[in-house]
Amino acid sequence: MELRLDGKVALVTGGGKGLGRACALAFARAGADVAICDVDETAAAAVKAEIEAANQRCFTGSCNVSSAAEVKEFFHGAVEALGSLDITLNNAGVSAPIVPLAETEEADFDRLMSVNLKGVWLCLREALRIMEPQGQGNIINMDSALGRRTFPGVGLYVSSKFAVAGLTRNTAIEYAEKGIRINAMCPGNVATPLLVSSTTEEMQGILADQHPMKRLGTEEEIANLALFLASDASSFMTGELVAADGGWTAL
């Protein structure tokens, strides 16, 4: 089965690097025009060049997803530039130090919830405001395997991702009869450039061992899932938390 997005317009937040970049490129290669935002404008420009090399249009912008005004400006700029909005991937997110909860800081909590939860809510809300009058749309939230299970030291991150899971499922039910599908992806530990550059080989081995498959995932494997959820191949799916985690959440 070939997954195609011909004639579609997709928007990806945090699309300049890592999983966002991989998903944006997968959408473009499948025939979609793509809007990407990233706080790193240089990275976004590089992805734009790759998308245009695939003969698809690309709109880029800098957007702090925790700002309602910036989210609205970016989403409507994308619609004006590309003509519509069919697919939204709410990918932008941040992490925090792995420490016991008593050692966490208020600034870490505020930053995580501002981006990982408020940012998803604002982008989800803006996408719905555009898609509902169209009578159709497809929204994918980037959650995590840690939106379904836990381990010590990541209480704040887990809390933000459990909240995204609940927001995804509840909103999907609200809009199921309006032609808008809403699902979430729940990746395990993935060998993104950030993870590889910020961890030792020993730590990468520990992270890999959390998966029964005993390896890290790849960006391409997560992008393949995003493409499936963005395509009509998943047309009877909404409100799902779809794992791509090497069996981690099956334990």
SSE topology string: EHEHEHEHEHEHHHE
The biggest sheet amounts to: 7 strands, parallel
DSSP strand content: 5-15%
Give the name of the CATH superfamily: NAD(P)-binding Rossmann-like Domain
Report Rg. Answer: 17 Å
CATH class descriptor name: Alpha Beta
CATH architecture annotation? 3-Layer(aba) Sandwich
Distance between the termini: 30 Å
Structural class: alpha/beta
Tally of DSSP β-strands = 7
User: What value does the average pLDDT take?
Assistant: 96
Which parts are unreliable, with pLDDT below 50 for 5 consecutive residues or more? none
Compact summary:
With 251 residues, this protein is α/β, with parallel strands linked by helices.
Give structural notes.
With 251 residues, the protein is α/β, with parallel strands linked by helices. The protein has a single domain, classed as NAD(P)-binding Rossmann-like Domain (Rossmann fold). It is 46% helix and 14% strand. The protein has a seven-stranded parallel beta sheet, sandwiched between helices. Helix 1 packs across helix 8. It starts with 8 loop residues before the first strand and ends in a 7-residue tail after the last strand. The relative contact order is 0.14. The mean pLDDT is 96.
